[in-house]
Design brief:
The protein is built from 27 helices and 15 strands. The chain is of the alpha/beta class and 667 residues long. Among the domains are: 159 residues, Rossmann fold; 101 residues, Tetratricopeptide repeat domain (Serine Threonine Protein Phosphatase 5, Tetratricopeptide repeat); 194 residues, 3-Layer(aba) Sandwich (Rossmann fold), CATH 3.40.50.450. The protein has a six-stranded parallel β-sheet with strand order 13-12-11-10-14-15, with helices on both faces. Helix 6 runs parallel beside helix 8 and helix 16 runs antiparallel to helix 17. The longest helix has 22 residues. The radius of gyration is 30 Å and the shape is flat.
């Protein structure tokens, strides 16, 4: 994870006088004790006087007291600001605080029981004989608190009020806008753009670049939700594992985990996960997700029925007990959340379907539920006419055999899905209509509604290409990483660096790359991914296009900067410039510019390392079974981070595989 956890330090600034008149150098205490101890514990130290921007320092202070991963407070003096701020922290957060002090024999009774760390002053300065040991002791106290504080109510406020819960930070946004919230909103916008472009690899990179540690959990849930919508549940589960390390008991993360397990067809695990959550809290959303596992169970049993292909209705009748259980589970969820149309419409649809296939009257209160669906969906559409409220209203009209209303609402919902580039929504409705059609439930309306959704999917196909789950269609997704052509001004006999990939080996390297593609069986319709640098990258891209493959070029910089740095720097005959131009103009090529797609790299992150991860995640998101790796590498470390060696290490770490390595020295 790239974002650093932040520790906010509450203390006096500059020199302040002790009760005996001695001037205490608090800046020295921060510089030589607090800051290094905090950094050694893996946190980023920060105090309010560092916020020298325009606007109110109080807004930044309240923000840090709410969102900081950790707080260190110096209570050496009875400074009213310090006492006030530690009181605010104790009210907002149940833990994550260490109190420090000097000169005093003890701290006031009201904060007894807190983790405290004493340090020593001599003449108003840190005692040079003790500062190293006290720095280590403070680091250990911070580490011990970090390891224990989640779930531990260390704040005296939360200790005395056992039913008090920490506030939802999203409801306590400080000020009109500030750097932390703005960073999160910008990051979330990039995730949404990646989702709309159907690029799960982009989301996997962004998930490693959450804008700050305070909002990391929310950011990870955003990324996981987007990956679920892109039909990448396995990667969503990886992201959620990291989220739950931060907040193991968070309801939203556990709900998302249940959804992802279900989408990954791990139905038993999904049901068990959601069952445990439902035992702890009987909220409508959790019960609705648990009901979904019953629906999945029925679908699985129905599909496995020996007469499924010959007589779908009979197969459904034989499995009607599980269908009824699914409907009843949704009814329970609707009772828990009577304002939520999601469990309501599902209970109604499955209940009416049970009546249809069995020919019997259900004991579930379906007429009352129908009235409830009508009210809740209409109210939701009135507040915010989104896809799901319209699709729910359409499904209700279908169930009640109101054809015109159903088709009108399905059409409006489909138009919204196209505008939002939302394959997930259309797929969900399409699947629902498919099984209703197979069971001959209001067949005429279902057929016309399915045609509406199908036309919308065709529009999305024209805009975006294939569905996300169909992006794995290539039998081979080949990642390439390799050396650029040598710059004779730097790499040649008698120069500062030895030759690595001299121009004399271009043809031999091109032939060996073609051989590697032959060895893998890559051909027409397959996909190659690489950078666009002179030398190995462009030779690989040329070889891919020559055999009918598609190619994606990933540029670490804006195109003009990339050309100067990686293509034309050693190209007196313009061979590489012509190749780059021809490749980018080829209709089977896609050029992706990293700062445009992902935004600027976080501070301290190599753009070349980031680009390697971007290429690799984009390939892996299409399925590990289809991913293959070819490199042009002399076995030596690169000139900096993010080179071919870095890519090979990433491939080995993330896949356990050994790429094909072409050594230029052997050509």
């Amino acid at each position: 994870m790239i974002s650093a956890r932040r520790a906010f330090v509450i203390m006096p600034f500059g020199e302040k006088k002790a009760p005996d008149g001695t001037a205490i150098d608090f800046d020295g205490v921060y510089r030589d004790l607090f800051a290094p101890a905090i950094a050694a514990a893996g946190l980023m130290p920060h105090r309010a006087d560092a916020d020298r921007r325009g606007g109110s320092i109080h807004l930044d202070m309240f923000q840090d007291l709410l969102l900081a991963e950790f707080v260190v407070a110096d209570l050496t003096l009875d400074n009213p600001n310090v006492w006030y701020e530690i009181g605010v922290r104790h009210a907002l957060r149940a833990g994550g605080t260490v109190l420090t002090y000097a000169l005093r024999d003890r701290l006031p009774f009201d904060i007894a029981g807190q983790r405290m760390q004493r340090y020593t002053l001599k003449g108003g300065r840190l005692d040079p004989d003790l500062v190293e040991a006290e720095r280590e002791a403070l680091k250990e106290a911070i580490e011990a608190t970090l390891g224990a504080w989640r779930g531990r109510r260390a704040s005296p406020v939360y200790q005395q009020l056992p039913n008090l819960r920490e506030p939802d930070w999203k409801t306590l946004k400080v000020g009109d806008i500030n750097q932390f919230w703005q960073a999160l909103e910008t990051w979330q916008s990039r995730v949404e753009v990646a989702r709309r472009k159907q690029r799960p690899g982009d989301i996997l990179v962004l998930a490693e670049e959450t804008p700050n540690s305070f909002l990391e959990f929310e950011a990870l849930c955003t990324a996981a939700r987007a990956l679920i919508q892109l039909s990448r549940p396995r990667y969503a589960l990886d992201i959620l594992e990291r989220a739950r390390e931060l907040e193991p008991d968070d309801v939203e993360a556990r709900q998302l985990e249940g959804i992802a397990l279900g989408r990954a067809e791990r139905y038993a695990e999904a049901r068990e996960s959601l069952r445990r959550l439902a035992e702890e809290r009987k909220d409508g959303e959790t019960l609705g997700l648990l009901a979904r596992t019953w629906k999945d169970e029925w679908t699985q049993i129905w599909n496995a029925h020996p007469r499924r292909k010959l007589d779908r209705v009979t197969a459904a009748r034989d499995t009607a007990a599980t269908l009824q259980s699914a409907a009843a589970a949704y009814v329970e969820a609707f009772r828990a959340a009577p304002g939520d149309y999601y469990p309501a419409i599902n209970s109604l649809t499955l209940g009416r379907l049970w009546e249809h296939v069995t020919g019997r009257h259900s004991r579930l209160p379906l007429d009352l539920i129908a009235a409830g669906v009508g009210w809740t969906a209409a109210a939701a559409a009135e507040r915010n006419k989104d896809y799901w409220s319209l699709a729910t209203r359409a499904e209700l009209a279908l169930i009640e055999n109101r054809k015109d209303d159903a088709i009108e609402d399905y059409s409006e919902a489909a138009a919204l899905a196209v505008a939002n580039r939302d394959w997930f929504a259309l797929d969900s409705t399409s699947q629902q209509l498919d099984f209703l059609g197979e069971l001959k439930f209001h067949s005429e309306i279902v057929a016309e509604a399915a045609a509406v959704i199908d036309r919308a999917e065709q529009q999305l196909h024209a805009l975006l290409g294939s569905r996300p789950e169909e992006r794995s269609e290539p039998d081979h997704v080949v990642v390439f990483s390799g050396h650029m052509i040598d710059d004779p001004a730097e790499r040649a006999a008698g120069k500062s660096k030895p030759p690595r990939f001299p121009p004399s080996k271009i043809e031999a390297a091109a032939a060996r790359i073609r051989d590697a593609l032959d060895e893998l069986g890559a051909g027409a319709g397959d996909l190659g991914l690489c950078g666009g640098a002179s030398g190995g990258d462009l030779l690989f891209a040329e070889a891919c296009l020559d055999r009918g493959m598609r190619i994606e070029l990933y540029l670490a910089r804006a195109e003009n900067e990339f050309l100067a740095e990686s293509v034309t720097f050693a190209d007196p005959e313009h061979r590489w410039e012509r190749s780059f131009t021809q490749l980018t103009e080829n209709p089977r090529s896609t050029v992706l510019v990293m700062p445009e797609e992902l935004g600027p790299a976080p501070a301290g992150v190599s753009i070349h390392d980031r680009c390697n991860r971007w290429i690799l995640y984009s390939a892996l998101s299409q399925g590990l079974r289809r991913a293959f790796f070819v490199t042009l590498w002399n076995g030596e470390p690169g000139d900096g981070p993010g080179g071919t060696q870095n890519m090979i290490e990433l491939v080995r770490k993330l896949t356990g595989r050994q790429p094909i390595i072409i050594d230029p020295a052997t050509l």
